Amino acid sequence: MKKIVIIASLMLAFAGINFAQTTPATPPAKKAKTTKTTPATATTPAAAAKPATAAAGPTKKDGTPDMRYKANKDAAKTPPVHLKKDGTPDKRYKENKPKKTS
User: Fold this and answer.
1) CB neighbours (10 Å) of residue 71?
2) The dihedral of CA 66, 67, 71, 76: what is its sign?
3) What is the mean pLDDT of residues 9-31?
């Protein structure tokens, strides 16, 4: 009798765990159609986060250089210039440290 009660309680426990892990299937909510009254400008937060740089070649819609073109790849190979806020070179980087002469 004990074995039957234990088996029945385990089956109920596993069934409860199985139902707890699944989410009910609900149809996706319909999105209301909205129309933009103002065009996107450079003052949007996404555009403000990216610095404005002049690309050597073609650019993508968001204004970043399109790296499929050789002109943009060549421009990206130039080493970055690390400057402090006051405009002086940042000595933490190798290219800004003075050359050692022996």
Assistant:
1) 13
2) positive
3) 75
